[in-house]
Design a protein that fits this description.
This protein has one domain: Rossmann fold, CATH 3.40.50. The N and C termini lie far apart (36 Å). Helix content is 49%, strand content 17%. The chain is α/β, with parallel strands linked by helices. It is built from six helices and six strands. It has a six-stranded parallel sheet, sandwiched between helices. Helix 4 runs parallel beside helix 5.
């Protein structure tokens, strides 16, 4: 039942074109780019918008993806802002601070919570109907923050998996 509710709107959008209309990836680090690459080779979206606070890295990563597009079904890929993500069916959040050497998971949570307090309201304003997939570490807490800050129903905020980070957080 939950699975049907979660994917009902996405399935309708995909049936209209054979693919979802628009995806957004927030953060173009290693995980964000792996997601972008996977989405491109699986022809998931008609349009894919990537955003990052590091504009130079963002532009370079998007250029790399665009060079590979001739080898897959056409997808419009662009570097953009949160506002450019408007209308996205799925938003993948990989943004966040990296854990520094010697830094505790609690310290990382505090830094990422500050990032999410700014990011999530802006994202929800631009993408109110999207499903949010949270990948940022520690994912159990960033997923909970996304749920609370967004006000979205729980079925539209998904964490990439919480067991590993929960175990790390306890040590």
């Amino acid at each position: 039942m939950l699975k049907q509710q979660l994917f009902a709107n996405l399935r309708t959008a995909k049936q209209q074109s054979g693919r979802l209309h628009k995806g957004a990836i927030i953060g173009v680090g290693q995980v964000g780019m792996a997601c972008a690459y996977a989405m491109l080779i699986q022809n998931t979206f008609d349009e894919l918008v990537l955003t990052d606070v590091n504009q130079l890295k963002l532009e370079g990563e998007v250029m790399d993806l665009m060079h590979g597009i001739p080898f897959v079904e056409p997808t419009q890929v662009k570097a953009g802002t949160i506002k450019d993500c408007q209308g996205a069916d799925i938003v993948v959040i990989t943004a966040g601070a990296k854990q520094r050497p010697g830094e505790t998971r609690l310290d990382l949570v505090q830094r990422n919570a500050q990032i999410f307090q700014q990011l999530i309201p802006e994202l929800v304003q631009s993408c109110p109907d999207a499903v949010y997939l949270v990948v940022s570490n520690p994912v159990d807490i960033t997923t909970y923050l996304t749920l609370k800050l967004s006000g979205l129903p729980p079925a539209r905020v998904i964490g990439s998996g919480t067991l590993l980070d929960t175990a790390r957080f306890r040590t």
